[in-house]
Specification:
5-stranded antiparallel sheet, about 325 residues, alpha+beta, 11 helices
Length: about 325
């Protein structure tokens, strides 16, 4: 039986379909580590899967020679990527089932590991959340912030065992090459201090780790969302996801105009979610503590950008303003 035939049989076995047909390639994985492809299903035996007209297969097949659009193709980078797919598989198998409709993620049909491939078989969220955005209006931004608030409240205090102990793809300990590439100066000198401020926060949750707007799937009206791409999920203060998300979908001027309003919206949602999921925890104190780390979290990501791509468009006046504020506390 060919590799593709084995794959089709695996999908059929996991979903209860009698026929599996490859459709479009959704995208290639970063640096050529595989692809994400959609498969149609027919003849479903389980009526509970009647809406699963298609599934998504995240097929990880690392190249022999790695490539990176900016040249970061070191062994450290390669091992980090391999670990990220192990983390994502573990997340979908052991943590994703705990999510509910207020922090919606894809159902995982199964994880295949053999000598030739690693594959994560997922619900096709396009069936319920068909819209993707690169920029977002305020209602869509608020929908994502509400998702993050519920996610962070749901997993506050949960052990990150099997995931990244410290989530986010820019975490200092996993980015020594980028730190070495930074220009000497106050920001580089403060790298360990920034990281310590975030990891010393007494209120740790699970963070998505790559919560950009492109990793959210929107309902047709744009008011409901689900999240994908959990390669860098792990422990951390929830505010790290918030700063990264806002930077992913807002211009410098929009941030200047709306940051406090949107931060306040997230914190209000967080308090409400904590009262629902974790009523014994001090919701207002947690919100206040994370709010105080807003500039620190933003500056920590700026630290990564300064080594990875110093001329990145996000290294603008708003970012530098927050960095000045954070570094003044050092």
């Amino acid at each position: 039986m060919s590799g593709n035939s084995k794959l089709h049989q695996y999908i059929a076995d996991q979903t209860g379909a009698s026929t599996v047909t490859p459709l479009d390639r959704v995208q290639t994985l970063w640096s050529g580590y595989g692809e994400i492809r959609r498969y149609s299903l027919a003849g479903l035996q389980d009526t509970n899967n009647a809406e699963a007209r298609s599934v998504i297969a995240k097929d990880i097949n690392p190249p022999q020679a790695t490539e990176h659009p900016r040249g970061w193709n070191t062994d450290i980078s390669h091992q980090r990527k391999l670990r990220s797919y192990e983390v994502e598989a573990h997340w979908y198998q052991n943590f994703a089932p705990l999510c509910d409709d207020d922090c919606r993620v894809a159902h995982c049909f199964g994880v295949l590991n053999d000598a030739s491939r690693q594959l994560i078989l997922l619900e096709d969220l396009d069936n319920s959340y068909p819209c993707r955005l690169s920029q977002a209006e305020l209602p869509q931004i608020k929908a994502c912030l509400k998702w993050l608030a519920n996610f962070h409240a749901k997993f506050l205090g949960v052990s990150a065992e099997g995931l990244w102990q410290v989530g986010t793809y820019w975490h200092l300990d996993t980015r020594p090459d980028e730190l070495d590439a930074m220009a000497d100066g106050e920001l580089k000198q403060a790298a360990s201090w920034l990281d310590q401020r975030l990891t010393d926060c007494p209120y740790q949750t699970l963070v998505h780790g790559d919560a950009k707007v492109a990793n959210f799937c929107f309902s047709q009206d744009g008011l409901k969302v689900a999240a994908v791409d959990f390669q860098y999920v792990g422990g951390g203060a929830g505010i790290k996801d918030v700063t990264y998300f806002l930077g992913s979908c807002m211009t410098e001027q929009q941030l200047m105009d709306h940051d406090q309003t949107l931060l306040g919206f997230y914190l209000d949602c967080l308090v409400c979610a904590l009262r629902r999921y974790q009523p014994r925890l001090p919701a207002e104190e947690i919100a206040r503590t994370w709010s105080e780390l807003y500039a620190v979290a933003w500056t920590d990501f700026y630290r990564f950008l300064s080594g990875w791509m110093p001329d990145h468009p996000k290294s603008h006046a708003y970012t530098r303003k927050l960095a000045d504020r954070a570094l003044a506390w050092r």
